[in-house]
Specification:
Serine Threonine Protein Phosphatase 5, Tetratricopeptide repeat, 2 domains
Amino acid sequence: MTGQRLRDTDEAPIGRRVARWRARRRMTQQMLADRLGKSKSWVDKVERGVRALDRYSVIQEIAEVLRVDPAVLLDPRRPAPTAASGLDGVEAVRAALARYHRPAGPTAPPDTVQRHVAHAWLTYQHAHYAQLLRALPALLDAAHGTPALLPPAYRLTASVLVKLGEADLAWLAADRAVAAAGDPARAAAATIAVAEALRALGRDHLARTAALAAVDTTTDHGVRGTLLVQAAVAAAGGGDRRHADDLLGHAAALADRGTADDGPHHTEFNPTVVLLARFLAALALGEHAEAVHRHEHAVRTDGWRRLPAEHRAAHLVDAARAYLQAGDLTAAGQALVDADRIAPAEVRCRPVARTLLAEIAPRDPAAADVARLAALVGLAR
């Protein structure tokens, strides 16, 4: 009986934190219940501490709906994430997106804005997300004076917001990128961000539809290939193995015709990207052993080392999830450690990576590197 009372006492703060975050997200108990596939009574019991939250997977699901780090719900002593979690600066970007009417005045010359956009893309490729968040509001304002640069600025904004778990806001930025495109070629490149945002929102069918609709509107090698990859991973996310394989086959054939240079659209499309997409498709389909096999093959290719730091570290975060689901905690932890060495912000700023680390670290106490990383990001108890 004493143990039961202690457990109930320990669990009660989690329910109260769920209630507080639900209120902050302006959700009713019924709304939260609907998104979780639970009853309103279940939510009410959780919030009152009558029902214990004793499964990490359930806590993670609630955290995803509430758009918070699971660690915030797990530890009642932990404050809400701020700059330490990489989310500082998102509100400034939100405010920039809400500025529909900008005051008239002198604008920077187009070549200056173009240089700033190019530098922002390099910042993204090096995964310096905090620096990029600080720069984006001014960049968006400046790009309004050079309409041709609005699509890449909005697309970049959408991509970093997806990274930081702000999928709804990313969708807004991606939609603005397409609306500002002005021609089919620019719109096709902007649709890459649309597909990314829709996938992050769990709208795989819409993501596939949008990507495929844009493929034939451009002749750009890298954009076409990247759209095929986005459509394939979205198909896998929807459980459609046949179409995922077919689309990846088309993407591979396109990549084998010659590696696209980075070009103005920053696609980095090449055969290694297709290999990584095959990994993502297997992971989305629940084929964890196959995903691990494809990951281990892809990272041994020459093209792997030529990918930007952001792309390699992001893939390693996904690889950690594959290893975890395959039951290999040691490899999962090592993948996160390797990702942190390549691009620390991929692990320290992204909610998905912090969630993985919060699950791996307590279950693999012998891994010193993982424990140090958990302490660095504030997850150590």
